[in-house]
Design a protein that fits this description.
This protein is an alpha/beta fold. 50% of the residues lie in helices and 16% in strands. It has a 6-stranded parallel β-sheet, with helices on both faces. It has a two-stranded antiparallel ribbon with strand order 1-2. It is globular and about 50 Å long. The chain starts with a strand and ends with a helix. Bound molecules: uridine-5'-diphosphate. The site of uridine-5'-diphosphate has 14 residues, from helix 9.
């Protein structure tokens, strides 16, 4: 499968529907792997962090989350088809999983959030099996791995610890976690639990989700300065032909 490089992070140039199909195929065949959805902030971080870049590129699926990555692809004249927001990819995948009675573990966010998300998901997708929940605040990784595995096998484990913590966790523990596909999904459990709202469609459709989040969560301003820096770096690499 073709991947396209943006500052060294190799993205799958596929649509959301294709990403869901590939995830479902991995689940059905029991092929272990993990999914990452890097936005421009993470790609910018990975530029200087070779370990982070390596573990992003080792993912089964690398999906372009965020409008910054889509702009970057345009600047580099590379064919990323569409933004594949992690949370939307997961919602569609969970809908497919429910049709087949597949199982899901919810890992991450503050205590109680995953349980609330589980309630909402069960209501929305009655065929879905929730194997268990675990909050994202733990003393050491072993404790978290033990709690997740105590639930038995899960077809999918959502790992929602924020980036790059979740990517590091998935890469480190994929072999011993009793799950087929791990998906790193940032703040998605807060959204599924109804604690944090996603931006209204207008913002999402116009590539302005970042602006909506900035208004709601102004403390993100510093993190968000990565977006213009990222785009400038992409333009520079286009001019210099650097990979
Ligand atoms: N989180 C966690 N454990 C931690 C740090 C963060 O479970 O040690 C959770 C946090 O509660 C939130 C999510 O990870 O639910 C991060 O959300 P954010 O929107 O910041 O992530 P992003 O998608 O921007 O990386």
């Amino acid at each position: 499968m073709d991947r396209i490089s943006i500052l060294g992070v190799q993205f799958d140039a596929i649509s959301k529907a294709e990403a869901v199909q590939r995830a479902m195929a991995a689940i059905r065949h029991g092929e272990k792997g993990y999914v990452v959805t890097p936005n421009s902030e993470i790609v910018y971080m990975a530029r200087k962090d070779t370990q982070l870049k390596k573990l992003l590129n080792a993912a089964e699926l690398v999906l372009p989350d965020g409008i910054g990555v889509v702009h970057a692809a345009k600047i580099l004249k590379k064919p990323i088809r569409e933004k594949v927001a992690g949370i939307e990819f997961a919602a569609d995948m969970i809908a497919e999983m429910a049709k087949e009675g597949r199982s899901l573990f919810l890992f991450g966010a503050k205590p109680g959030v995953a349980e609330q998300a589980a309630e909402n998901l069960k209501k929305q997708y009655p065929g879905l099996v929730i194997t268990g929940c675990r909050d994202g605040y733990f003393k050491n990784d072993e404790e978290a791995v033990r709690d997740i595995n105590a639930a038995g096998h899960s077809d999918v484990i959502l790992v929602c610890l924020g980036a790059p913590k979740q990517e590091i966790f998935m890469h480190a523990h994929l072999p011993e976690l009793n799950g087929t596909l791990l998906c790193g999904l940032g703040g998605s459990l807060d959204v599924y639990a109804g604690i944090v709202e996603r931006a209204p469609d207008f913002y999402v459709n116009h590539g302005l989700e970042w602006f909506y989040r900035l208004k709601k969560e102004p403390w993100r301003a510093k993190r968000m300065t990565a977006l213009p820096k990222f785009l400038l770096t992409v333009m520079k690499t286009r001019i210099t032909g650097e990979k």
